[in-house]
Amino acid sequence: MPPVTRAGRAAAGGRTSPLAVGAELGAAGVRPRKSRGQNFLVQPAVADRIVAAAAIAPGDEAVEIGPGLGILSDRILRAGVRRLWLVELDARLAARLESAFKGHPAVRVVCRDFLELDLRELVERPPVKVIGNLPFNAAAAILRRLDEMRGAIGRMVLMFQREVAERIRARAGERAYSALSVFTALYWETGGHFRVAAGNFRPTPRVDAEVVVFTPHHQAPFAPAHEAALLGTIRAAFSAPRKTIRNALAGALGAPPEAVAGALERAAIDHAARPATLSVADFVRLAGALERAGAIAPALAEPPDA
User: CATH fold of 6-216, please?
Assistant: First the structure.
């Protein structure tokens, strides 16, 4: 097995010290930027748990988003992947990764913004495993991008700010349930999850993180031809989450209230219900009814920032 990186050796015996992380970053010429949400994982036990959750088998192909100093990368390689794509936006960190993994036959470093990347064109043998400690300020956008590329993905293990993770895996009627919850449930099963305390990162963020495991649905809960109408319905409903579903939809869609009321009746949904009480199945029925009534426009299908 090729040798692990300096980050891997430093982390092998316990938590990497702030001074060691600072030295690694300084050697790469990197100062963590709040604007990029850069918080580097330094606890090897957490890294081990993240990679274990990916259930990597020898010969798998994997993509790591934002590898940073490589603490996860080392462990992914030890699991026996055939190919590991390291997608890093920061050119200085990408150069450090190139140096650290120089000569490793499995590693390919890609210095690009993940939001501008198409996995379907990058990977060699989908479906692939996707792993990442996502930058807090771009995590929701990255997840939406992964939604679009779900056909090339077999499993994902991603770390988010804890509040965002709670919204991702929330169910109808729960406090954290939001548009992001519904968008996620359209495409993924969210299984295991675990909390990662803020002290496991350098620099230390103000909030804890959470790791969530995603697997794609074997069969989507909606017909592909109706996806745009469904996304538009969810967006419209949560544009005013404290209003009744009838008023939220009428306001966001600019549709006559009687048309919205008729669609709600056909979908067997109480017009006085709040959006956060509707399940994925409810939204699927409602979108179909609104589409048949001509009350939903394709332009509304862009998911909101969540």
Answer: Rossmann fold (3.40.50)
Residue range 136-152: average pLDDT? 95
So where are the chain's domains? Answer: 6-216, 224-301
Of 202, 116, 220, 209, the C-alpha closest to 166 is 209
Q: What is the spatial distance between Cα 26 and Cα 65, in angstroms, rounded to a whole number?
A: 21
Does the structural domain 224-301 have CATH classification 1.10.8.100?
yes
pLDDT digits (tens, 9 = 90+) for 153-203: 999 999 999 999 999 999 999 999 999 999 999 999 998 999 999 999 988
Pairing of strands 40-41, 201-202: antiparallel
Higher pLDDT, 277 or 18: 277
Residue 10, pLDDT above cutoff 70? no
pTM to 2 decimal places: 0.88
Would you say 283 and 263 are in contact if contact means Cβ atoms under 8 Å apart?
A: no
CB 86 within 8 A of CB 108: yes
Q: Cα(306)–Cα(293) distance, rounded to whole angstroms?
A: 28
Closest Cα partner for 89 from 113, 65, 72, 119? Answer: 113
- Strand 188-196, strand 201-202: pairing: unpaired
